[in-house]
Amino acid sequence: GSTPQHAAQGSTNTSQGASGTDVLVQLKDVNKHFGDLHVLKDINLDVHKGEVLVVIGPSGSGKSTLCRTINRLEPIDTGTITLDSQPLPEEGRPLARLRADVGMVFQSFNLFAHKTILDNVTLGPIKVRKMKSADARKRAMELLERVGVANQAEKIPAQLSGGQQQRVAIARALAMQPKVILFDEPTSALDPEMVNEVLDVMVSLAKEGMTMVVVTHEMGFARKAADRVVFMADGQIVEQASPEEFFDNPQSDRAKDFLGKIL
Ligand code: ADP
Ligand code: MG
């Protein structure tokens, strides 16, 4: 595997854990079907602490399903997935903790529509992390400040632009102090003029050493922020390489074809 570039920068979450490995998420021989459809085929993938992994590939290739298996929104048929060397829990409180450790930012924002922006960010920490309300609010305001929407704290999501809502979704994920954040096409539903305000927040998280798995078609982001690019097609990992290698010298016909269509 590759050594994440961020590992040298000494951020707190790139150190080796008690398990003595810097692999945070590991998928081994993972297979998943939806009925007759084989959507994940023998997936083997390590995500290292502090690494930014960008997943690209055609629509329907299994990118969202791959993300969703990592926080067990989708169960797998065969194979194993570990977080910090521990198998994913299947239910109950351990599963709730897993979901807190594995943040997720979706294409469609998925904020609680009838709660204020501030409540959207404090609810998880209070309920799952058992944080005191005052502490959760203080931390939430800091995070909203950081993503540039602190002045919207008392509004509800519908009163915000898509770009603002997605930045709130990132603040909400960060509030849980996750070990890794999964981004599933976080800018695909945004008007073009709002894409960069979200990508800028993601680039800054990447620079700070956050472990991130990012499904995106934003090749500029991939070049700028990715430590590694994984190319998926038809349920398989077809290629993985540094962004420079992948974009400048793709190996497989499928990757060449895909890049030819989007670049
Ligand atoms: P991608 O994110 O790369 O576009 P997905 O992971 O969403 O791909 O989907 C992979 C394949 O699995 C597609 O053929 C899709 O139609 C199918 N699929 C995804 N979710 C479900 C589901 N809940 N039930 C049945 N088929 C699904
Ligand atoms: Mg998808």
TrEMBL record:
Keywords: Amino-acid transport, ATP-binding, Cell membrane, Membrane, Nucleotide-binding, Transport. GO terms for molecular function: ATP binding. InterPro entries: AAA+_ATPase, ABC_ATPase_HisP-typ, ABC_transporter-like_ATP-bd, ABC_transporter-like_CS, MetN_ABC_transporter-like, P-loop_NTPase. It is found in: Cell membrane. Belongs to the ABC transporter superfamily. SUPFAM superfamilies: P-loop containing nucleoside triphosphate hydrolases. It comes from the Bacteria. It comes from Populibacterium corticicola. Gene3D superfamilies: P-loop containing nucleotide triphosphate hydrolases. This is Amino acid ABC transporter ATP-binding protein. It holds the Pfam family ABC_tran. Residues 25-259 form the ABC transporter domain. It is a peripheral membrane protein. Its main location: membrane. Residues 1-19 are annotated as: Disordered.
